[in-house]
Design brief:
- The protein is mainly alpha-helical and 204 residues long.
- The protein contains 10 helices and 2 strands.
- The chain has a two-stranded antiparallel sheet.
- Helix 1 packs across helix 2.
- The protein is globular and about 65 Å long.
- It starts with 21 loop residues before the first helix and ends in a 6-residue tail after the last helix.
Length: 204
């Protein structure tokens, strides 16, 4: 298992905003790679659309990764992820003292923070765990329910679904972002032509 793609993720509805429920997303992933599903006809012990997915196990893993809802702490200064979280560079630096490859140049860190705020913040928002960023730009904190630039668009940072909070990722047209459109176009192709993707013959 590769940890970087999964730490902090339970609070982000799919990064491209295509899925709001992680159980739905992970079940679909399982079907896409190895799980079995009966899509032909019902049979003894094999109901139609029955699958080999163990939903209870997936839900249990998600709960371990998620931890406690950060908004259960009323004070914004105490909000944080408590499940599987990304390590900080300084944690590794402590383990490799004397190795210049792990040394931190605080001046460059500060410059990088300013560059991130100027060029990355609009889409990626504030850092999850950077008290210096939150102190310098308190209104732009990741943990704020709203940021000024999103409020002008009637958008909020966090949404509550089923009693749990999720970070509302920024949605922008691919043409405005200027990156590879494949991730978004594959979803629209599947929506327009499911038979092209699944190779299942239409019943019509």
């Amino acid at each position: 298992m590769s940890f970087p793609p999964i730490w902090d993720t339970p609070y982000f509805p799919q990064y491209d905003a295509s899925v709001l429920n992680e159980l739905v997303r992970n079940s679909g992933e399982a079907l896409g790679v190895s799980a079995e599903i009966n899509m032909t006809a019902a049979a003894p012990g094999r109901p139609l659309f029955a699958s080999s997915i163990h939903l209870s196990d997936i839900a249990r893993f998600e709960e371990l990764l998620r931890g406690v809802d950060p908004f259960s702490a009323g004070d914004a200064g105490r909000r944080k992820f408590t499940g599987l979280v990304a390590p900080q560079w300084k944690d590794a630096q402590e383990k490799f003292r004397g190795d210049p490859a792990w040394a931190i140049n605080e001046k460059l860190v500060e410059q990088g923070r300013d560059l991130y705020r100027a060029h990355c913040f609009e889409c990626h928002r504030g850092p999850v765990n950077d008290t210096a960023f939150d102190k310098k730009w308190p209104e732009d904190s990741f943990w704020s329910p709203e940021n000024p630039d999103r409020s002008t668009k009637n958008e909020k940072n966090w949404v509550e679904i089923g009693g749990r909070h999720y970070f509302d990722v920024v949605q922008m047209p691919v043409t405005a972002i200027g990156t590879d459109p494949q991730q978004s176009s594959v979803l629209t192709i599947a929506a327009r032509s499911p038979t092209r993707v699944t190779r299942i013959k239409s019943c019509r």
